[in-house]
From TrEMBL:
GO terms for biological process: DNA integration; DNA recombination. The keyword Lyase does not apply. This is Putative integrase. Residues 122-232 form the Integrase catalytic domain.
Length: 297
């Protein structure tokens, strides 16, 4: 193992910040950064040797390779964590605009969509129907719904998503807290047997293309909206009230106790959806704080 990789590994092992999933994702991300820096010609001996030129080189490389702004923002989050641990917290600008990245659009209207019987009737393939149900009741992404092997993932009180099934290789756990979830998993296990919804004789890319074509023929344009609906359903279960996107109150209308409940629910939902950043929940739930109106000239 290279010196920088070993040093970063020791730092992550001794910093227990965040959930197990967050720690594992961060550790993998930092190892990836170390490998990339080495490939770019920067053979750092220790984590404390990180300098602005190294960050600039990484961002330049990511952009040259067509990495999406959202992914670069996530990776810069790992760099900021790294810089903080080596007492260089001010080295990486907090504003991603400094690196020429588009500002994150945290909320652009309620995208939640209910999975109705009418929609399912238009989707002719039972396996694609099952994938959509898993997206709605567990907040899974398309890839996760297709790749997951229910016989392995179902642990009774929680759903275990292996890193090889998820976006960015992020292992995570989703509580099984509702009878509808329990019933759906029983159906999924019966349908998949020892395998996944991809089925025998196909690989993931073929299954993905079939999924997309099936939804296109069925006129389903916003399947990601079922994941949004899960997040809003989960929020109401955890808090007792609707989220802002669904007409619920923003923080300025909450009691201190409700505000704490909002924060706790958003943190849990972000973990269950496979995100590391709390503010990402704004996309699904609406902004916790009202948007201030700009003053006229």
């Amino acid at each position: 193992m290279k010196s920088l990789n070993f040093d970063l590994l020791n730092i992550t092992r001794h910093c227990g910040e965040g959930s197990f999933s967050t720690q594992a994702t961060r550790a993998r991300g930092l190892q990836q950064l170390a490998d990339e820096l080495h490939d770019l010609g920067y053979k750092l001996k220790a984590a404390k040797n990180l300098a602005p030129k190294h960050v600039d080189a990484l961002v330049t490389s990511w952009k040259a390779n067509g990495i999406a702004d959202a992914t670069i923002r996530n990776r810069l989050g790992w760099v900021r964590w790294w810089s903080e641990k080596v007492n260089k917290s001010g080295m990486v600008p907090a504003d991603n605009v400094t690196y020429g990245l588009a500002m994150r659009q945290r909320y652009n209207g309620n995208k939640a969509q209910e999975l109705t019987p009418e929609i399912l009737d238009r989707v002719k393939d039972p396996r694609i129907q099952m994938a959509l149900k898993l997206e709605r009741l567990f907040g899974l992404r398309r890839e996760e719904a297709l790749k997951m092997r229910p016989v392995i993932a179902d642990r009774g009180d929680r759903l275990i998503l292996q890193a090889s099934w998820t976006k960015g290789g992020r292992y995570r756990e989703i509580p099984i807290w509702h009878p509808r979830q329990r019933s759906l998993l029983a159906e999924a296990r019966a349908m998949c047997g020892d395998g996944s919804l991809i089925g025998d004789g196909r690989n993931y890319k073929q299954a993905q293309k079939h999924y997309d074509n099936t939804l296109l023929k069925a006129g389903v344009r916003n399947a990601h909206g079922f994941r949004h609906k899960f997040a809003q359903w989960r929020y109401k279960t955890l808090t007792g009230w609707e989220c802002p996107a669904a007409g619920g109150p923003t923080i300025d209308k909450m009691t201190p106790q409700q505000e704490r409940g909002d924060h706790s629910a958003r943190f849990q939902i972000s973990q269950e959806l496979g995100h590391d950043r709390l503010d990402v929940t704004d996309t699904y739930l609406g902004r916790a704080r009202p948007v201030k109106e700009s003053r006229g000239a």
